[in-house]
Design a protein that fits this description.
The chain is globular. It is α/β, with parallel strands linked by helices and about 210 residues long. It has helices at about 15-25, 30-45, 85-95, 140-150, 165-175, 205-210, and strands at about 5-10, 55-60, 65-70, 75-80, 100, 100-105, 115-120, 130-135, 135, 155-165, 180-185, 190, 195-200. Helices cover about 30% and strands about 30% of the residues.
């Protein structure tokens, strides 16, 4: 896979350590959910390093001083249902006031194209940094559709956060939307014939919510 200027792939030992545990088939639902949240929190530092800020005066026990704070209502997180829900708390650990929207997608059995079945976005989404959350980036079809939807709503600053990605998915998103910053915790080898990422971690939604 070639390098894309808008794609960041993490190579941090703490993230890689947690991904190793995340992959294991012996990791139970509770630990799996907590690992997803912890990895997301670590990724959020980089994803929001340029979040809008303003200066305020703060009174310490000794004097008044000018300090930098993040502008309220500047960020919204948009989990792609259902697995993306598992990443929301990871962002909220660092940015508890981030608004939350939801996008639901399913794959048409005939065309294999993603179809929207639900969309609820925060008011004023067009003026916020919108972070799309989905643990897995496989073919990239759902991610491209979600980005298309946000752009139709007037959002100009869109970011995508995935924990595990396949090269084809990264290439699809980076080519279709070169203006969107993509953050990936780990780039895997390929997709199998059923569209699962290898080595991957199985179905993230099933492992998060205990379903099959």
């Amino acid at each position: 896979m070639k390098n894309y200027e808008n794609v960041t792939i993490f190579n941090h030992p703490l993230i890689q350590h947690k991904i190793a545990m995340l992959r294991s088939k012996d990791t139970g639902m509770k630990d799996f959910r907590e690992l997803i949240e912890e990895i997301t929190a670590l990724m959020t530092f980089e994803c929001l390093k340029d979040v809008p800020t303003r200066q305020v005066m703060v009174t310490t026990p000794l004097e008044r001083t000018e300090q930098t704070i993040v502008i309220e209502n500047s960020v919204a997180v948009i989990p792609v249902l259902r697995a993306g829900l598992g990443m929301v708390n990871g962002v909220h650990m660092l940015f508890p006031t981030a608004k939350v929207g939801h996008i639901g997608m399913y794959r048409d059995e005939e065309t294999l194209e993603p179809k929207e079945y639900y969309c609820k976005l925060p008011d004023g989404i067009e003026d916020k940094i919108a972070i799309i959350l989905d643990p897995m980036l496989a073919t990239g079809g759902s991610a491209v559709a979600a980005i298309d939807l946000l752009k139709k709503q007037g959002v100009s600053d869109i970011r995508l956060m995935n924990i595990i990605a396949a090269p084809v998915g990264v290439e699809t998103v980076a080519t279709a939307h070169p203006d969107v910053k993509v953050f990936i915790a780990c780039l895997d080898r390929q997709l199998n014939e059923n569209g699962y990422i290898l080595p991957g971690l199985g179905d993230a939604g099933d492992r998060l919510f205990g379903t099959k």
